[in-house]
Sequence to fold (260 residues):
Amino acid sequence: AEDEAAALADLSASRPDDSLLNRNNTLLRDGCHKLGWRGEVMLHNRVGCAGLGTCLLGCPLSAKRNARIVPIPQAIEAGVRFLTRARALRIEQLGADRKRITVRSLDERGYHEQHHLTIEAKRVIIAAGAIASAQLLRRSGLGNQHVGRGFLLQPQLPIAASFAEPVRCFEGIPQTYAVTQFEELQHPVHGFWGFRIEAIGGTPGIVATMLPAIGAAGQRLMQRYPHIAGALLLHPDAPRDDSVLSIERNGRLQIHYQLD
Fold:
């Protein structure tokens, strides 16, 4: 509990005032209240937010107290060195207490590998997410038969509605209210279970790719863009042993995933 409180304090986490909820979020909140369901204004790591609505592209005010603003500067001050546009290719065990990491530098756009370098260290922490971490371990011949097996994803179902009046979900903070009526934080078998619904905004590009129509019909739907309200239904999945991440002979990553 103390660690959680310290982390929230570091990130300046707080719940936005109701006055900062945009129309998209208040529609979800009002519907939740009318149905008598449980809901919440979510914690945000914002300081000095002006509700510009560009969160999905980047905040021009740096109001999000994210890794770039909080822990990375603290780490640099403590002596940590960061290598950017660098890809770890392989980890080798040099001895009982020494490891070597082979790294390739990338071009300025982060696409193509260029020069290589090596780093030696007593300890190596792999924190590249469920997929890339397993990929690195597989390439390095490290770990056991469980590496790359049993990982899980978080299915997300987009929900949209078209209103007669403008909603303009792209203005203000896009994601502030959540319906928590159907969440189970302490399920006897699964732990965190159930589902939640969160209001969400979308840029024109994101919304256009998710429309159930293309061409002229898609264009007509996009003309309704200011009137569309959006939300996500988030549901945790359960791990399955037949969900497998593998590296094929040509070096390409293959993911075989089955929803439980």
